[in-house]
Amino acid sequence: MRFPALALLLLPAICPAEDLRWFKGNTHTHSLWSDGNDFPDMISAWYKERGYDFLAMSDHNTLNAGEKWVTEASVEKKKIALGLKVLDKYRAKFGADWVETRTNDQGETEVKLKTLEEYRRKLEEPGKFLLVQAEEVSAGFGKAPIHINAVNLAEVIQPKKDVETIRETLRQNLRLIAEEAARTGRPVIAHVNHPNFRWALTADDLAHVVEDRFFEIYNGHPMIYPDGEPSRVDSDHERIWDIANTIRIAELKQPPLYGVGTDDSHNYHGGSSTPGRGWVMVRAAKLEANTLIEAMQRGDFYASTGVTLEDVAYDKAARTLRLKIQGKPGVKYRTEFRGTLKNYDRAVVEVDAPAEDPQPKRLKHGADIGKVLASSDSLEPTYTLTGDELYVRAIIISDQVMENPAQPGYLQKAWTQPVGW
Question: What is the C-alpha separation between 248 and 391, in angstroms, rounded?
Answer without folding.
Answer: 11
